[in-house]
Design a protein that fits this description.
Four copies of one chain form a homotetramer. In chain A, 73% of the residues lie in helices and 0% in strands. The first copy, chain A, is mainly alpha-helical. Chain A has a single domain, classed as Tetracycline Repressor, domain 2. In chain A, helix 5 runs parallel beside helix 8 (164-185). The radius of gyration of chain A is 24 Å and the shape is elongated. The relative contact order of chain A is 0.09. Mean pLDDT of chain A is 84; it is low at 1-16. Chains in contact: A-B, A-D, B-C, C-D. At the A-B interface, helix 8, helix 9 and helix 10 of A face helix 8, helix 9 and helix 10 of B. The structure holds a DNA duplex (21 and 21 nucleotides).
Chain lengths: 235, 235, 235, 235
DNA sequence: TATGAATGAGGGTTCATTCAT
DNA sequence: CATGAATGAACCCTCATTCAT
């Protein structure tokens, strides 16, 4: 909006965040943001942990918020890449769904409550300016599941009367809420059993409407077949 | 842990903030928080809308964050009371679930994206100090649904192999995500059709394991088994 | 332009800068700005001299630049008021011009090179935002001389073929340059003789074009008259 | 006073900056300073326009301020050279004055408000350190006019009772003020008519005291006196 | 000569919060 | 109760400038 385009950011380009320095900063920033949360984190502390000056941080990242967004982006990127790679190799919607759910929960649980809280919380605290960016990041992140949904809908594995988007929101929303409860409730948490239960429930929720009907039809055919046999044997 | 004497200073009780002034402040605060979000809202603006001084605000509320929490509490309180009253009168789990879902979506949609974003976002931005409070508020808010879950589990309307808490997280998590998508995507949004779709899907997800499809499957297995035996014996 | 209107400045109103505090701040600010110049002056120092915090300064003035503008405004205001009062009472354009010149030089010399440099320099360093304000201030300041010009042009005391604005620029521009030379050259400087010389030169520069012609005409009339008398007496 | 070894580091001499690189930098710097003003211009932008690094700029110029001074110096240098060359060839003070005025106005108007504002504004924003330098530059720049004044005073073309310096300040000060008004007022501006009016007025202001009008006045006084005597004796 | 990278050194500004009246 | 006034405390960010290569 009213942003000065600035001379052109001092840093190379927003694309290739590969330099060693950049990675170091990202890493330190992730730690601090995870520990303190965005608002309470200070650029001073991030710089301090790196043993550099704040100015160096700002050489590579335009603002504290941008830095935080990049931390999130990097986090999502990793899993996104994995999902993009693995999910298409999996056979069947049910297994795909299960895989996606397990990955999401596993990563967020394993990396500690800090980063988990950051991902859950800052995904919602977006300064307008980065609103579009976070939407993109999440779109990419959820694209594997969306593709799986699409394929499943086509093959008749899941119902076709509900927007994919709604199902996606159910899956991710549920997990977020579960993780949030976990973080704040401190209850013991079994990833595996949660994965199983969620998969099962969503499998049923998303099942084609005519599944029972189809099953019934097949059953009838089988029974009819059997009856014919009985008839034959009993005659 | 050396916690501050905390949240009650000179206020009557944690529950019912009554005075006219208190209500005015809450109202102004809600407007401002809804418009700007917590961080960008200022106590100065809240006071200014009331035509009083910031000091007055602090006479009634200990801190900006506390004020915000009270705004949220008030918001939840209203619906909580309604749910507590209405839900028990409804017959059947399915209808109860539907009612809860509709109320949640309806309120958040109708009151505008501002308060909606506030509820969704600030519910996650908790300063440790208020962490417990928000958990309480939400517990109270979700208690109607939890009670319905419990009753349904007892009566066999829903499956008994999944923690209620997990189902609750699914329901509320899904709705939060859906609302968030709505707020940021700006897509047209039909409360009624969403309610129907969600109710239906959750109904299926939560259905007892021995419902038609499952029962049928098991029955079919039995029959098939019997047929095999007959086959063998009859040949 | 793109300024946040802000909730409404915390300070009473831009008009009545009368409060004691305001005057104190203005005074301290003038000292610091005069000593260091705008850029090198710091709000910290201004606050420190007052024995208050910087925040207090910002309670009354929106920004460092605004504070500086107000210092300038106050400076101009004082003399403007004096000129508005005195000039109209003076008879004749020449005396008025002389008065205006003397006041300008006198004030700027007497108040020291600091404030003088500030007035001369910062009158030219305007952040767009205050561009209009400084123009207003200066318009007001020069209005006495402009009025005198207008009256003189009407009465035929000065030429009518030159825009008043041009003459005004000549008078003030000359003085600014003279003062600048004085400040940087450090040459001894006699206000009185400079006033006399300037007045005299401008008087001639601005004199009606037909002054010589008129004088000549009158002189011819007088001589002719004398000649007639001589004729009469010598006959 | 412990002055820094100052302005010449590794540069050939204070006078002639020759290298191609130097010229490129000066050119880019002039553009940026003209567009943004000194304070808002950044060395980063200057370097960026050149396609080099900031460090390169600092290889050739000791500081941002020095660079700016060199830009100004170069600007003045060009016209100074022209004036030095042309003015002595012109016959008569009036024509010389007119020439000088026209050149000054013409250059500043033609090169755009950016460089004009820079010259007018930064000529006044001197960091002590460069105070002497700018004085030198301006002395050189005004030397043609000063020489013309001196010659004119010698030949009796202009009055001898006023310091040349004062007259110089009047001429340049007037023009600066006029240009400033033009830049900020945005009024249409005719160089030629302004040149004519200024020349005419200054011509009159600087005219010898015994020029026609004065001489006439004195002569008239004498004649009148004589006439009175005649009157008395002839009655 | 050229420069990529790093940074020292503030600087202005913001607000929630306090307290005497 | 209400509040005007004051401020502590930080924070993000900028940029000219340096220096090893």
């Amino acid at each position: 909006m009213g942003k000065k385009p600035a001379i052109q950011d001092r840093r190379s380009s927003l694309g290739a965040r590969s330099g060693r320095r950049v990675q170091e900063i990202l890493s330190a920033a992730r730690d601090v943001f995870a520990e303190k949360g965005f608002e309470k984190a200070t650029t001073a502390e991030i710089a301090q942990r790196l043993g550099t000056s704040e100015a160096t941080v700002f050489t590579y990242f335009g603002s504290k918020r941008e830095l935080c967004m990049e931390v999130l982006r990097a986090w999502y990127y990793e899993i996104s890449a994995e999902l993009d790679r693995e999910v298409p190799l999996i056979e069947g919607f049910r297994a795909r769904l299960r895989f996606v759910i397990r990955e999401h929960l596993k990563h967020l649980i394993e990396e500690g409550t800090g980063i988990c809280a950051l991902v859950l919380s800052e995904g919602r605290n977006v300064d307008e300016e980065f609103s579009e960016l976070i939407v993109d990041i999440k779109r990419r992140y959820t694209s594997s599941l969306m593709a799986a949904f699409a394929a499943a809908q086509k093959s008749g594995e899941i119902r076709g009367d509900v927007p994919l988007r709604l199902m996606r929101d159910m899956v991710y929303g549920s997990m977020e809420h579960i993780l949030w409860s976990y973080i704040h409730g401190g209850r013991p948490f079994s990833v595996e059993s949660t994965v199983s239960q969620l998969s099962d429930m969503f499998w049923k929720a998303f099942a084609p409407l005519d599944q029972p009907a189809e099953a019934l039809a097949q059953f009838r055919a089988e029974v009819a077949d059997a009856l014919r046999k009985l008839d034959r044997s009993g005659s």
